Amino acid sequence: MNIELLKYPTGKFIKPTLITKDILKKWISDISTFPQRLSSEVINLTDEQLDTPYRPDGWTIRQVVHHCADSHMNSLIRLKLALTEDKPTIKPYYEDRWAELPDSKNMQIEPSLKMIEGIHERWTVLLNNLAESDYSKIFIHPEHGKEFRIDENIGVYAWHCNHHLAHITETKTRNNW
After folding, report:
1. Are 25 and 164 in contact (CB under 8 A)?
2. Which residue ranges does UniProt annotate as crossing the membrane (predicted)?
């Protein structure tokens, strides 16, 4: 078992040299369709399956679903901050600690699936209505010590959707579910 492949089944995000309208359209589509794609993969899993880690010492599928709700909620807020403030410094959060809280470790996934559906619906409306000048707006991520442009962050989160979905689909494949 290749641990790097288990960690990054779709590879790591690589920012294109030039982010074109076609690339943005694909990324926004990935974000828009994520709730349905995720739900179709997890809705019929048993509690035992949901509590299966996607890799040794990794999160369970349940934690991955809850993490997506947490992470994408934060991303929507970051987008809104970048659209309404001048170079805001966002507040990072300890995703590993959030994943260990009772709502991530033990709770049923349906509330997070509902959150993801609503978050992505609102997120998609914003993304589909960005002005050309909005793509170059930035926020500062102190944890990474860098500025992120909105267009790059759209790509990061399209990748994030597909990355975590692959954790789930690869786990299902390996376990013949």
Report:
1. no
2. none
